[in-house]
Structure prediction request, 414 residues.
Amino acid sequence: MPTFNYIARDAGGERKDGTVDAADQRAALLRLQQMGCTPLSLTQATGPSAKSTSPAARFKFKFSTGQKIQMKPRAMLLFTRELADLLSSGMTLGRALHTQAKRDSDPVCATIIPRLRDEVVQGSALSDALRIYPDSFPKLYVSMVRAGEASGALGEALQGLCNHYERVQAARGKVITAMLYPAIVLGVGVLSVVGLMVFIIPKFSTIFDELGGTMPLPTRILMGISGAMIQYGWLMLLALGGAGIAFQRYLKTPAGQKWKDARMLKMPVVCKITQANAFAHFARTLETLIRNGVPILKALTISEETVGNSIIAEEIADARNRVTDGSSIAGPLAAGGVFPPLLTDMLAVGEETGDLPGALSQIARRYDEELDFSIKILTTVLEPVLILGIALIIGFVAISMLMAVFDLTSGLGV
Prediction:
């Protein structure tokens, strides 16, 4: 039977080194758990697994370490929900992480969770361990966990994080769902027009050339566009692709992000969606942080980084600079003119009554409702506008063809 060398900590937190005989690694972990130990390291002393790593495996390990390790949002939410449930059942943090690490999961989780377990078992706080993976656990997450550790209510803090991210994903899903149907309509319309210009119009052009005569101006314009698309279509695609990539990279720069966010706040209908989503996210984030004991200035800093719009983030930063810890935040937010009076007035009432988290919860609910209403308006307006635009283009094509046919048939005396 194989022998495994282990390093573990017993129930009292003391380190223990030793060996255990077991049929396989899973059985060895079970033996250690029955002994009341939390394993830190487990290696097989004899057998095939004790052999040195092959060159291919070493190359694969070195190659993979250069890649960014990031847990997907859904996986992060599942991890948080399970950890909160395990802690609520009375399980210790180290054992809860060990339980999650034993489960079969995707490669990213199989890398992150055992590392978190090892850090916690070795004496690190969970909030410090989470900072190893900033791409998976943002500052909001780490701050909430740190506040939960300080207050002795880590399970409740994790539960609050679950509720927060579920609401954020629900709001994002509403926007994506609302834009899905217009995107499909636009895509089908563009493909239909391209198909007409590339495959149908050239056939009519050949017939018109054989019949001779002068075609109407709209028909000549249509034929010119069709010929250009056939002859230079590949060049147009390359130019559009290059322009799209360049524009996308520009939007990732601070100046491009600011330009985009400013345009989003000025476009009709779209500005309502952008503002409602940003204000709801700001209120929900700030409420979650304050309710879990994060200081107001730190909470404003995190809200600034997660609000999702650079213009509104700058306004939050200016307000934070005007706020001293423990003072009113409604006045500084109202002074900039970006936050609406309704939001700042509700904040002021929450500060006067001593229930700022409750006021922020009401604000988030209010702007969630406004977000739903604005999305319905956008879809109601956008769908007929897209359909009308596509109908006008196809109508122009049909009328141009019919005008040429009528001119040629009248010239032939038909």
